[in-house]
Amino acid sequence: MRRLRVLLAIALGAGAGQLAAQVEVSFPTPDGGVVYADLYGRGEHAVVLAHGGRFTRGSWAPQARVLADSGFRVLAIDFRGRGRSRGGPVTDSSDMGERFDVMGAVQYLHLAGAARVSVVGASFGGGAAAEAAIALSAGEIERLVLLAHTPVAHPERLPGRKLFIVARGDTTASGVPRLVAIRRQYEAAPPPRELLVLEGTAHAQFLFDTPEGPRLLREILRFLRAP
């Protein structure tokens, strides 16, 4: 049975001092799994927040409350294997199926009445978001923010508006700047598209804890609000 949990916290950013409600929800994935997530706000434009490999849904709380206070409905998900989220039957051991978690989140929001759905994905969550956008029907994801995302096989198939973000000094374990691969993904993706290169070495969500954090959040808000 679905458990309801409400936390009250002081919202950050615009409208500080208001209370932002966080509610736990769950929904099925297309491969037969179940995802648990935190839902904030009630806007007609919904945003899925897909965390990176070293995080869980709770890592998005500060950004989720700012987005909700700015008029968005926000769904921060736990990927399968985190918390109580789990995947469906796995037929291919090489496919971990995280894209299905994002797909389930997008479909849940549409069924719940969201007029538009966008996705912000960080690191491996960004790769899952990109794969979900390719797999879903045209228009199901309106805008896609890929924050230092894991590159995908077919960036040329990415639909909708896209914002690629990476820190200039962010490198892979082998020392290669992630900007190299992400620029290739950006150049292969069809327009409309944007590439934002921030300063520093922080990877994906860790950027929010650097001096570039406020700019990062402003740019995400600008992109999501743009007509």
Word description of this protein:
- The radius of gyration is 16 Å and the shape is globular.
- Helix 2 packs across helix 3 (124-135).
- The protein has five helices and nine strands; from the N terminus they run E-E-E-E-H-E-H-E-H-E-E-H-E-H.
- It has a nine-stranded mixed β-sheet, sandwiched between helices.
- It has helices at 61-69, 98-111, 124-135, 178-188, 213-225, and strands at residues 6-10, 19-28, 34-40, 45-50, 73-77, 116-122, 143-147, 161-167, 193-198.
- It has 227 residues and is of the alpha/beta class.
- Mean pLDDT is 91; it is low at 1-19.
What is the compact description of this entry?
The protein has 5 helices and 9 strands; from the N terminus they run ββββαβαβαββαβα. The protein is an alpha/beta fold and 227 residues long. The chain is globular.
Which characteristics define this entry?
single chain, about 230 residues, alpha/beta, nine-stranded mixed β-sheet, 5 helices, disordered N terminus
Quick one: overall form?
globular
Question: In what order do the strands lie side by side in the largest sheet?
Answer: 1-2-3-5-4-6-7-8-9
By DSSP, the count of extended strands is 9
First-to-last CA distance: 40 Å
Query: What class would the helix/strand composition place it in?
Result: alpha/beta
Task: Let me know the average pLDDT.
Answer: 91
The description of the largest β-sheet is: 9 strands, mixed
- Low-pLDDT windows of residues: 1-19
List the total number of helices. 5
- Radius of gyration, Cα only, in angstroms? 16 Å
Oligomeric state of shown chains: single chain
